[in-house]
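User: When convenient, might I ask for sequence and structure tokens for a protein?

AI:
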Amino acid sequence: MATKDGQSILRAQYHIRNKGSSRCPDHRDNDVVLLCQTCNVLICTSCSITSHKSHIDSFLEISKIRNQHQNSLQDFVNEAEKIKIPKLNDQIISAREELSACQPKYKNISDNIKKQRDECRLELDKIMEDNLAICDKMERAETHLLHGHIVNLEVRLDTLVKLSSDCKQTLQTGNAVLVYDTVVDIKDRDFDIPQTTNTDMTEFTPGKDRQSHLEQAMGKWKTPEHLKTELATSGCSNQGPVVIPKLFESKGMQREILFKLCDSLTVISKFLYPFSITSICPTNEGRAWLSDWATNTVKLINNKGQLVQKIQHNSDIQQISLDPATGRMWFCCTEEKTIHELSTSSTPVTRFTTKGLPFSLCVINDGQIVVGESGVKVCKLVMYTADGRVLHTATVEASGFGPVWSITQCAVTGNIAVASTTQISGDSSNPERSQLVVYNPTLQHLFQYRGEGIKEQEEAISPERFDPGIVVYDSKGNIVVTDRTRHTIELISGTGTYIKTLHVNKEQLGVIGIQRGNVLWTNLKIRKRGVKLFKYYCD
């Protein structure tokens, strides 16, 4: 039998018949009258008994298949005239319309690119203006800080000169009781000469990876696969797609900050402190302001527990906060609904009043004050200017109502984290159960954290078990939070991811605060009240 390959060889040996000719190309005196279906060629009677004799079973008379082929031709004509020709005409018209629209389309894209460039320039100018404004503000703040430091030194000098004179007088004329009282007074005071104020408050580091950020700010192209190689070889970018160019968000973005945690907390200092502490605000000089709600007092102590300064107020001091730019202390009084600032003369000055009951406050980077207020059936965060003008307001999301216990702002992103009272899933058995909520710098809700990732005895902590008390951001943008249920200090990332349990206390935890350099001040309650200073980063 002839194979298909064999047939191809045979067909290659046949003479070619002209289209429409009835003469056999091999036997020119004969007409073709048969179809050899094996070879799919028309043959004459002579071919049927010679070169095609082995295909006799596949022969058909041409006259008998005429109608069949005529029908095939008619079907082709019908399909061509009714379907394919009109479709081709439509496609030609459509392609010409696309061609006519091609130039305006790319003209529009070109205009958008130029517009985006102009907007990027405006944004860059705005960023430059913002940076220059920061520079001016930091210059004023540093100048103010140095003036305050000088005033502090002068006050200390005057106090020391006067006290020295009094001591001389006591030595000469004082009785035993006066001598004793004077010695006790001296021991309770801090006469250490304060270190020169650290004026290295900030620095500007020019960005190095400008190209990628500028490309991201300009936008991205969506290109067909078959053009990507051509674009790449011609020097064009073959980035991913974009429909509407998106500007690079310079505010509120979480920068990647690398850090190394210590295996265990490193104790920097520890001392007994028998008094109650409502809140802790460490200063940049290694000291801390401690408030006591019960006695309406605020004390400034050094890292050995020695008293530096004491402020007595005539109303309840609910919570304190330090202005990150000036270092001045602010505090809120719940009963009076007032917000106060401690002036350079160490005298509290009332700055404004609040509508709700202020339970907490935080002076943020722009010199504005975020206050946690409680009212009738509602709990709010309110952002004020220094003179009491309301800028932003947010209702704290919760299934129950109660005060905001703690507020802190991130120096990296500007985000604001709070710990507020809530009732988890309507459970009123513990009405003081809290939640950790994070907002952007304009008090837009970002996310809640309920202890996801924290493990206790190899079991995950359920939301009703997590009870944050005090929250503070560190310089890495991470959140340090106390868990009142488990008596622990937890480290959470700025995006709400559990990192590590820093400390487990045997008894109830007190308040905490963060000093420059990520030194953690803690009020630990183990038998006797005391304060410990820890470091948890190794870098």
About this structure: The chain has three domains: 4-51, 69-198, 278-521. The first strand starts at residue 34 and ends at 36. Helices lie at 4-13, 45-48, 62-173, 176-187, 210-218, 225-233.
